[in-house]
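Section 4.2 – Deliverable D4.2 (structural model, holo form)

The reporting period included a commitment to supply a predicted holo structure for the target in complex with 4'-phosphopantetheine. Inputs used:
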Amino acid sequence: MRRVVCPGSFDPVTNGHIDIIGRAARQYDEVIAAVLTNISKRGLFSPEDRVAMLREATEDYPNVRVQQFDGLLVDFCRENDIPGIIRSLRSVSDFDYELQIAQMNYQLAGVETLFMTANPQYSFLSSSLVKEVASYNGDVSTLVAPHVEQALRDRFAGD
Ligand code: PNS
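Output (structure tokens):
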């Protein structure tokens, strides 16, 4: 079975994430969308909420599983017998950071990282920007699934 992980903070999942996961699901037998912690980011949603939103957003993909993990991505890969990681590249600045992480993960455990270029439609899109726009009551309906839009509205209501 050809298995790959699409890891991320998914705080919250965006249409850009779903595009990558869906494309990965066409290339692999099984895709694990893994919610992990990025220590350089302060989270808005709890890991449980992120998982629930990601599950709902990927429910139409029969070969996508969503899991949460506290720890190193390479340990998650080892525990789940996953030989490869897919990461999206939106820009050259993404590449600088992603290359370093990919090489570290290879050095730590021999896990390969495969880069998928972002759909140009979503190359400007990030969870951070979505949160900023939503926090000012801006329209994010073309950027996230309706249930995510509602969760953002609920979270920022009364702020
Ligand atoms: O969506 P993000 O924030 O770009 O995802 C980054 C993430 C969560 C995949 C990354 O920070 C990660 O792998 N975290 C788990 C801990 C880890 O393995 N860090 C990398 C060490 S080189």
